Amino acid sequence: MGKWLWGGAAVVAMIGGASMFWEPLAAESAPPPPSKSYDVEIVRDGFGVPHINGKTDADAAYGLAFAHSEDDFSTIEEVVSMTRGRYGAIAGQDGAKVDFVFHLLGVRDTVERRYEEIPADVRAVLDAYAAGLNHYAEKHPEEVRLSNLFPVNGKDIVAGFVLRAPFFYGLDNYISTLVEGKPPPNESAAAMTPIGRDPEMNGSNAWAVAPSRMADGKTWLVSNSHQPLEGQVAWYEAVVHSGEGLDMAGALFPGSPFVLLGHNRHLGWTNTVNRPDLVDIYKLVVNEAGDQYRYDGKWLPLQEERVWLPVKFGWFTVPIPQTIYRSVHGPVIKNDQGAFAIRYAGIDNVKAVEQYYRNTKATNWEEWTKSMSTGGITGTNFIYADKTGRIAYVYNALFPDRKPGFDYTKILPGDSSAPVWKGPVPFDRFPKVVSPVSGFVQNANNTPYLAAGRGSEIDPKTQSPYLGIELGMTNRGLMGTGLMMNDTSITPEELLAIKMDTRYAKSSWVKLWMDSLLAVDAKGDAKLVEAQKLLREWDWSSDGKGRADAIAERLIRHAARANWRNDPLPNPRETLQKTVEEFGERFGRLDPALGDIQRLRRGKVDLPMLGGTDTLRATTMWDGEQADGKMRVRHGDSFIMLVRWNKAGQVVSESIQPYGAATNRPDSPHYTDQMKLYVAGKFKPVHFDWADAAKNAKRRYRP
Is the dihedral of CA 444, 449, 454, 457 positive or negative? Predict the structure, then answer.
């Protein structure tokens, strides 16, 4: 969102030292949750993973907050600062862009208006989680960077969900392009959003396999999320129990009071990013003064609010003024082309916290689908499995209930209520595959019309065009389905090999991209000729065994974002030339081994990392700014979990993280202790039962 925010920043910065004291004094404090004593115990296993056991669900949430803070209070504090519109006071200009979005979406207004609609038992969990954060902050005041930020309460926790949820389906694309005066949505996204860098590259793989397809006769669920390896949406692993029936193992993001994906005793689920059209843009007809807009024949006042964004500059924080506009449609952005209102899935909705919580407590398909009918989780596919052998794929989103007669892919007239939808479609209209005859479901951020193989797919003709379902295909989707279809009796070892596959399909978008690179006229340029020769020899795998793996992977990475966004692919000659020059400068050769240049690095640990941008073994994004010129993987395979139920309904699971449980504690042995297992494609056991966790405890304590 580049230039739009900072035109006056230099002038305001002259306020200088006087502004050092403005931000904490201007920040409004919040009342703490009701005072209560919590009964909870924490066990740390051999990898430092917290196992939390509370008398009640609220007790467990309190313990989860404290345990997570022990491992990553810094990131949790950043998330909390976002829920107060104060992230700029920590992260400077990039943080202030998030604060602008916080105000633009009216996050706090939604929470204040809707909070009491959240059921009391859910609010008790939210307050308990907030109390756990407060307890940690009180015990460790030296770690608190923003004064007057704590205590927090349940409303702050809900605000985090309200702010971040729309960005998982791409709201940032619309906001950033409208602010810049460009046509949405196929323009570059903001550099920083409430869900971190490169939100459009977030992905995932997932499989659920029925006993009929598995050689061991078990029901399997494979969770393989692709997220940033660090930051506000990096996964944190935990196991939680309570005397009220909460038994959940899996992963969550900083700021969540419950596990967001994983399994309980009876069932499990995982998520992959989907991309339905969940945003509509309306061009308003405004009066000459710009303070009114026409709507159904009447002139209505354009709501206007002045907000001050805290922006950290060095040692001091200065206030930057911005004006926020709203109409009956939703938030409004003015640019040189006019005034545009945005209406998006999840607008004015706080139900996600209830839905996630009820999911964790579900004991069967009926209870889980009842929870899924809550209408709170704005997007993401769900892949489900349970102890009865049932598997399912749900293309979940809060689809706008659009009326026929308009092209919702284009800018809509803002002077009529006719194209303005009132709410989401019900759960029974979501695309689904339940108990397919193929015996498996999968998704790798591909269209839902390829989910279960021949004879078990969703028929596109049965789905409304107004749902805005994407048709895009990833290489991972093609490989994931094809490999499953080719094996009618899959062993556990074969299933893991599918998940760790590093190949590209020649029926994927990568083939078209490679053909365009090979078609470039090298015009006697020896280095371009050498690069093309390598590409012709490439074995279509990023397993690190071929001479061309590294340069092929670099070229694929240059085009992956455009392919993901359905934009034209880059100019092949320019890309090839740039890559050849880059490899020459960085490595002095065009054929370095992939494992030599693609690294998993943290602290003192530096390991070769194989896999590709759009392969099932995913290394989606690199940090190239390394002292030795090599590439540090920053995004791709993150939390991975293997879950299976035997015929008696007993559950066993394994998991792995890229780094370790102490996500932001460099002095901890658990900062890097999972890295060797992770790069080797191996897993550690999940001590799911409390008795098993206690038996394997390396530390046992109460907060």
Answer: positive
